[in-house]
Automatic annotation (TrEMBL):
InterPro entries: DNA/RNA_pol_sf, Rev_trsase/Diguanyl_cyclase, RNA-dir_DNA_polymerase, RT_dom. This is Reverse transcriptase domain-containing protein. PANTHER family: RIBONUCLEASE H, TRANSPOSON TY3-I GAG-POL POLYPROTEIN. Residues 1-131 form the Reverse transcriptase domain.
């Protein structure tokens, strides 16, 4: 997200396209169909396309969309798995950018899920942020999630909280890492008697 702060600089129009059936766009390599198989009481079946849940499915799909939009990435397109965001500074640019992206989708048999797409928007939710001409800001539901985070009761819950907090802090660079413990809620959690027992 840090680099997006500079990429979006000057953009005023932010359409977002959600791809439909993302992993189903990846054909299993011919000859390897027998590898991700499953059995039922009616017999054994092989996948012809990438099923959800395989270890390499996310990175394989990200590679696919990165290859399709390679020359447009970070110029006027940002892609994260099945979410494509286009950013333009003018109406004229917007029309050209969208035509280019939609043509790529058509050429590569990518389909959009209309109910999750946003077109010609001055602000859009993207990866826990609201992106507008003023730059990315944290989505209010993410802020609420942080404020309402339950006090961790074990090490795993603490690690989960710290991982999420680190993602937010580092990605936005709103607080230097050194001052992480100066956050009152985090400090209270870490200093609570139940946490001291865990640590």
């Amino acid at each position: 997200m840090n680099q997006l702060l500079t990429i979006f600089n000057g953009a005023t129009i932010f359409p977002k396209i959600d791809l439909h059936g993302a992993y189903k766009l990846l054909r299993i390599k011919e000859g390897d169909e027998h590898l991700p198989f499953f059995r039922t009481k009616y017999g054994s079946y092989e996948y012809l396309v990438m099923p959800f849940g395989l270890n390499n499915a996310p990175s394989s799909f990200q590679n696919l969309v990165n290859d399709i939009f390679a020359d447009l990435l970070d110029i006027f397109v940002v892609v994260y798995f099945d979410d494509i965001m286009v950013f333009s500074s003018s109406e004229e640019e917007h029309v050209k950018h969208m035509a280019s992206v939609l043509q790529r989708m058509r050429d590569n048999n990518l389909f959009a899920k209309a109910s999750k797409c946003v077109f010609h928007a001055s602000s859009v939710e993207y990866l826990c942020y609201v992106v507008s001409s003023e730059g990315p800001k944290m989505d209010s539901s993410t802020v609420q999630q942080i404020l309402n985070w339950p006090q961790p009761k074990n090490i795993k819950a603490l690690q989960s909280f710290l991982g999420f907090a680190n993602f937010i802090i580092v990605s936005l660079k709103i607080i230097p890492k050194k001052s992480l413990l100066s956050l009152p809620s985090l400090k209270n959690i870490l200093l609570s008697s139940s946490m001291r027992k865990l640590l």
